[in-house]
Amino acid sequence: MLLELKVPSPGESITEVEIANWLKKDGDIVSKDEELCEIDSDKATLTINADQGGKLSIKATAGQKVNVGDVVATIDTSFAGAEAQKVAALAAESKKEAVPAVASKPAESPAPVTSPSNYAAGVPSPAAAKIMSENGIKSNDLAGSGPNGRITKGDVLSLLANGFGDKKANGNSREHKREKMTSLRRKLSQRLVSVKNETAMLTTFNEVDMSNVMQLRKDYKDKFKEAHNIGLGFMSFFTKAVTIALQKYPAVNAMIDGEEIVTHNYCDVGIAVSAPKGLMVPVIRNAENMSLAEIEKSIATLAAKARDGKISVDDMTGGTFTITNGGVFGSMLSTPILNPPQSAILGMHNIVERPMAVNGKVEIRPIMYVALSYDHRIIDGRESVGFLYTVKELIENPKRMLFNGKKGEEVLLGL
Hints:
alpha+beta, Chloramphenicol Acetyltransferase, four-stranded antiparallel sheet, 10 helices, 19 strands, 24% strand
């Protein structure tokens, strides 16, 4: 029986995708639920899995554009179990040859055992492929330690740690390569250009003294992890501060739709994540109602899905505001670009000890520069500066997050 494998729909309004990479070869015997290929859409990278075991016949090549619903491969289910039988036979033969010979006879070398077809040998995982591409590493430069000989991210990092890059640099190589942009990268390029052309984007800056939040994190990180089974990072503090500031300045949480302004009474915060296929922005829904632990768990789950290529279109749709953290890569200051149709984005940066004037004295404090890029068509200077200053105040006085941005005495007095 021939089973057709059709292109699934990555999401609403997407009708065309691109075959990014086949993880199996034509004619391979596959098992049920095994990953067969990766497909790129404008918004995400997805995999097609085998619905049943059998012999694979590929109908669409890597790099080919196909429509949602098109047949890209078939599986002949009459071959199901053939691979298992072959492996079992080889194992039995190997065991038989392993029996020691009679002492009076000279030992004979066992006949070589031919291993079964190995579809994954030398094929890098998505994460490994990205690092290999960036460093000019070829599949025959290393051996894969993953399942069936697949090249893992760890294999590539281990090769680089052993000086592969240094050796390559000393060879005065002038090699270059040309490769086609993925659908995701092409769409991202178009969106970034349209943002510059279609919005009145400005950026305002401020600096945040991280002393109090760092001390709070130091004092409670062990108890926090013990209680919630998740680490306590800075992103959850900034996300919580952003949701409070968005409620205080709703224009920053709004967007333009034609000739109308759409204002949201909820905060769906996107967190920019660097993934093997490029920058992705999964969204935390109703972040304004979440505790720090819930925010941390949501970020960890979505970031892992993005890095593993398991992120869905629904995970990245519908955000009202975005946070991006260039500080993890060492960035001191930047002007983040808007994530349309959103009207603002907050950029976090690295934390550096700097001299500060505190009560007439110079003290060394851990300082982070923060940047807010915003669409001036909908957000005025008062809202943008006030929003960023509110975030600054909340991070410098994290206990105020308990009272929705107010001081304890202000809450007590009903102010």
